Amino acid sequence: MKTKLAFALVLLLIVPVAAAVGADEAAPNFTATDSYGHRHSLAEYKGKFVVLEWHNQGCPYTKKHYESGNMQKLQKLWTSRGVVWFTVISSAPGEQGYVTAQQENDYVKRMGAAPTAVLLDPSGALGHLYGAKTTPDMFVINPQGQLIYEGAIDDKATVEQSDIAGAVNYVTAALEESMAGKAVLVTASRPYGCSVKYAH
C-alpha cells in the first residue's frame, strides 16, 4: 500500500505531457525529490540554465564518463558558472542502477561528483516526461525554460575513456553557444549508452 501511495504521489508531482519533449520546445515543468529529501521544481530555476543528466552507476557508458572524471569536470565547470545541474536516476527497484538515497550520496562523495543535486526517480515519471532513453542522456534548458539540446553527451559513442579527449561535447557546445547569444548548432543527437532501466 505504501509503495502504491508513493508511486501515486510521484505521479502527482510531475506535469504530464502527451509525448517526449523536443529541442526548442518549452521544457515540461517537474517537481522531484533529491537524495537528501529536498524538493526541486524546474519552475524555481527559471532564469538559469539547467542540465539534466540521466545516470546509472552500473552502466559501462556512465562509468566511462565518471571513472575518467569527465562528468565531474563538466559538473564543476558549469555549476561554477551558475548552471543548475541535476543528475537523474530513473532505474526502478530491482533494476540495474537503482540505489537508495544513502547509496547515491556515498557514490557522489566517493566519485567527487558535483551536481547541484541528484534527483531520485524510481517510478520513472520524470524519465518518461522527458523521454530519456539512455544513461547518459543529456538535456539542456535555457533561462527562458526552452529545451535547447537533447541527446548524447558527445560524438564518441563508445565505452573507451581515451575517446573523451577528442570528442565534441554537445552539452558544452550548447551552453557556450547559448551563453554567447548564438544559435545552438546541434540541438539534438541520438543518445548512446545503456537503456534507462524503467519499471516493467
First-residue to last-residue Cα separation: 19 Å
Largest beta sheet, briefly?
5 strands, mixed
CATH third-tier fold name:
Glutaredoxin
Point out poorly predicted stretches: 1-20
Determine the mean pLDDT: 90
Chain oligomer state: single chain
Q: What is the H level of CATH, i.e. the homologous superfamily?
A: Glutaredoxin
Strand content: 15-25%
Principal-axes geometry comes out as: globular
Output the radius of gyration: 16 Å
Number of domains: 1
Which class do the helix and strand fractions yield? alpha/beta
Written account of the structure:
The chain has a single domain (2-195), classed as Glutaredoxin (3-Layer(aba) Sandwich). The relative contact order is 0.22. The protein is an alpha/beta fold. The chain is globular, with a radius of gyration of 16 Å. Mean pLDDT is 90; it is low at 1-20. The chain contains 6 helices and 9 strands. Helices cover 28% and strands 17% of the residues. The chain has a 5-stranded mixed β-sheet, covered by helices on one side. Strands 1-2 form a two-stranded antiparallel ribbon. It starts with a helix and ends in a 5-residue tail after the last strand.
